[in-house]
Here is the input.
Amino acid sequence: MATDRTDEQAAGRGPAFAEFVVLMALMISLVALSIDAMLPALGDIGRDLGVAAANDTQLVVSVLLLGLGLGQMVYGPVSDSIGRKPAIYAGVALYILGCGLAVLSQDFATMLAGRLLQGLGAAGPRSVIVAVVRDRYQGRAMARIMSLVMAVFILVPVLAPILGQGVMAVAHWRWIFGLLLALALVGLVWFALRQPETLRRERRRPFSPLRVALAVREVVTHRAALGHTVAGGIVFGAFVGYLNTSAQVFKQTYGLGDLFPFYFGGLALAIGAASYVNSRLVMRFGMRLLSVRAQVVLIAVSVAFVPVAALAGGVPPLWATMAYMAVSFFCIGLLMGNLQALAMEHLGHIAGTAAAVVGSLQTLLSVVLGILVGRAYDGTVLPLVVAFAVLGALSLAVTGWAGRPPSPRSPSSTS
Here is the structure.
């Protein structure tokens, strides 16, 4: 059957390199679309659904990410058993169901239930697409592909808030969910028609809880895999804190109102630029060197900006905050692809399960840290800057531990 062939075998009818990158980015971008298109509408959603505390509206972001973290643990092992494409089909179907529930929600609890389903569904393409890439590439080549995917993917945070703001200018915020539903259908059809199955039948493994448990154990006892996973989750936790509070920072702290999507999108370009630069440098300098240098710069600029923010009463001039965030997000853009590729480096033989565990642990850790950072919002940017400094330092420490050779008695020494 055609769906049992690898991309190399199906090269004559499968997507070319550029199409492959764009298609992978589109499928992964369901998560970013679901977050960033909502940001301009958070205040209206809170008012319409009776949310009392302004910081509680951050749960519209956090609950989706919670579903994403939980769901990724399932789809990877399932994709190792039944193939990549059926697992992605199931995830997108669940995502569409969540969109429908959010459209029909009349209270905040129902909205959060819909967002949880969206996260659980988006976890399918988010985790399995990484395995699809890993099926075809490894090491620095995989890091290059993932960086290019991230570079295309980053256009979503640039455009999605503007898209959400545009929808609200002519219609109710519920239509944003209708648009997400339509885009999910487009991606599903494109993927089904153009992307061949990458996991051959002889490489599939029967699904069993014991096999999954053993695979998870291999991942979490491999020093490099676990360390780089945790390091990524820590630094991404600071970024989730920014996502949770971005609308409040730009709309309330700086009073930008409807201009918020443009400032948000401008900062997203810094991450996209970093992903592109990384794709050009990683083959020359390697993932680890680029990651460590990005972490050092992130810590340095954050520590330097703390007194600047404090002396300004927590609200520095907008240009200064934008400059600081642009540098910080450039560093995060360098880290996103590299830390994930470092975590997956030695796990190609269990790519689906490994992608699931790495993605799930990173997301769940970042959600917990992001909620804490978001709850600390006090009308200023100071909590966010401090979080970037502290979490950047923790991430660097864990990266250093992950890169040290394991002791001879370590369980990961045989990997």
Notes: The radius of gyration is 20 Å. The first helix runs from residue 17 to 28.
